[in-house]
Design goal:
Layout: H1 2-40, H2 57-61, E1 67-73, E2 84-89
Antiparallel strand pairs: 1-2
């Protein structure tokens, strides 16, 4: 009888410690996930940003070495898009 009670007590202690372990691991995983989202910002890959860059020096100086091999305009498909693209070989 005492052996059966000791085994039940040991099982109950094991269940409690396993439950605490899962809680600690879950909180740790949530903390790591929050850190990754804040520090690396993977959602930035899907957000729209406007880029304002200066033209390459070859375009501004009208150098004879630079030539435009292709040009075009962006098309609006899923959302409004504006802009022009040039491929310049120097």
């Amino acid at each position: 009888m005492e052996d059966a009670m000791d085994q039940e007590g040991a099982l109950a202690t094991l269940r409690k410690s396993r439950k605490k372990l899962f809680i600690v691991l879950g909180l740790g995983a949530a903390a790591v996930g929050a850190f990754v989202l804040y520090w690396f910002q993977p959602q930035a890959l899907f957000l729209n940003k406007q880029v304002e860059e200066a033209a390459p020096p070859a375009m501004e100086t009208e150098s004879r070495d630079a030539s435009t091999s292709m040009n075009g305009r962006f098309r609006s498909l899923a959302h409004t898009t504006t802009g022009k693209e040039l491929i310049i070989h120097g």
